## 1
Amino acid sequence: MTHSDSKSPDLDWSQVRETVKLLTLSAAQVDVIMQEGDSAVDTLTDSFTEIVESMQAMNQHLLALVDSNERELALTCCSKTQEKIQAAIVAFQFYDRMQQCLHHVTSNLRGLSNLVGSPEHLYNPDAWRELQGEIRSRFTMESEKVMFDAILQGKSVDEAIAAKTAFQEGESDNIELF
């Protein structure tokens, strides 16, 4: 049996089904871009591994040479390159954090889609609390929980982000690990 849709609505048309379709689309879009990003990051990781190995070899060859001004300049270049590589590794860590966050978003969208698409759960406050609990439990950083709690308290997106930022600033002496 085919359900009507927004292009050809009939008495069976449902805004809930339309919402579920859009939530599913959003989850699929995030999944696709994450897969594409994984491939690019794998290439970058392989390249950086080779660069690090080459830099270590060059550094060892340079150290074996007789002291000279050119040798010292080359060692300085190696040192600066190693610093840039370390900065790139930090950027990869950010990417990993972003990847984890996007994975949570797709899981949340799927959970919401399933809940909204289920007539027996849609109007059940316990089902909504359960989904909210599952979403909150996925957060690994306390600042994320602060933002989530602010949204559930009815605050706007800007207010929730401000609450998260304020929490992070208050915790600036502590490093928040994910």
## 2
Amino acid sequence: MNTILKIFTISSLLILTFSCKQEPEGKEEVSSKNTKSENYNISILLDLSDRISIQKNPNPTMEYYQRDLGYIKSVSEAFTEHLKSKRIRQIDDKMQLFFNPEPKDPDVNSISQKLKIVIDKNNASKDLLNSINANYASQTSKIYESAIKDNNFVGSDIWSFFDTKVKDQCIENDDRNILVILTDGYLFYDNTIMKEENRTSYITPEWIRKNNLNTKDWEKNFNEKNFGFIKASDDLSNLEVLVLGINPNQNNPYEEKVIKAYWTKWFTEMKIKHFEIKNADLPSNMEKIIKDFILEKKS
């Protein structure tokens, strides 16, 4: 009887051991598939207003358009790093570049078309992946050179972009949608000037001074009088936003906080859950921040 019991016990242990070894392998396969199959849909929105003017806003350390180019370089590198982490059959990703309004220069619009990258298992190759960074660097440089040479800055209508274009052009249902905005933080466009009590489609240094948002009591004033941008969308919960290049007027020590309060309130009311708003720093200082945001590396 004892012998039979021993045989039964040993057999049971062998079966249990075999089963336990098989289970993690199956779980690991599922986990790997879920992690690596995430598809990115990255959009870059350029503010080609006079903020990039070398004459109006010179910076001896590094011109603002050169900083933009450095930020874009980090975005494209993060995109290609993401692509190279996936198997070819899992690739189905996009990166594109926008202006609003579109520049009048047809060459610039033609260049922007070249910067709309759609890559999947049918066209993915080592050569294509290795060409993305150089292509983005050279083509975006041409865009900024053209805008600066033209010296006829029409402004940037970021508010209307969120109102009429973001949902259609920057959001895919099954993707991770990331919008990178390069701007100094001020919003103003002649054809989009709206005001609803203390809510506006714009923010300028003049507006901040006029409404006493340049004092130590700015936050109390901001909250009690309900200052902020007019909401441009009811639900952008499937969008993540990274704002780069905030450049507050140095004459007002509270300007940076006011600008970020406007953007934070706007994004929160539009149900954007993941966003960051960063100042105009040197690209070398911003590289890690940009790549961490896009690649979700939590430090």
